[in-house]
Amino acid sequence: QVQLVESGGGLVQPGGSLTLSCTAPGRTYEMAAMAWFRQAPGKEREFVAAIRWIGGRTLYADSAQGRFTISRDNAQDTVWLRMNSLRPDDTGVYYCATGAYVRRAQSDYGHWGQGTRVTVWV
User: Which end of the chain has fewer CB atoms at under 10 Å, N or C?
Assistant: First the structure.
């Protein structure tokens, strides 16, 4: 069973930056993609970004496009989410997940991390 380990969350002011990381030691070939989702207080969990391990194809939510960058290091089994120009509505728990395809739906991802909290405070 793959265990995803997230880190990098914290408290940041609006306009600031954070980088989240997620490692997936022991990932298998079926886990061709890695994604980040987030859940704001009182809201449904939503897609943020995804990347394919081979080739690096990426997909972003409209809210993340232009501000967030997802990247990966295959040798380290690690994916990062660099978040710039953070806003209060970026606050939430960020989860990484693995799946077979780079898609937006939660149902396409079978393994999930425990989450890391990001708070953008005013």
Answer: N
Tell me the C-alpha to C-alpha distance, in Å, between residue 28 and each of 20, 25, 119. 22, 9, 32
pLDDT band at 26 (very low <50, low <70, confident <90, very high): confident
* pLDDT tens readout for residues 62-110: 999 999 999 999 999 999 999 999 999 999 999 999 999 999 999 999 9
Judge whether residue 27 has pLDDT over 90. Answer: no
Which amino acid, 18? Answer: L
What is the rounded CA–CA span in Å between residue 59 and residue 32?
14
Cβ(36)–Cβ(48) below 8 Å: yes
HSE-CB of 13 using CA atoms within 13 angstroms: 0
Tokens of 63: 């809210």
Report the amino acid identity of residue 68: F
What CA–CA distance (Å, rounded) separates 108 from 92? 21
How far, in Å, are 13, 14, 18, 59, 110 from residue 105 at the CA level?
A: 30, 28, 24, 12, 11
Per DSSP, the three-state class of 81 is strand
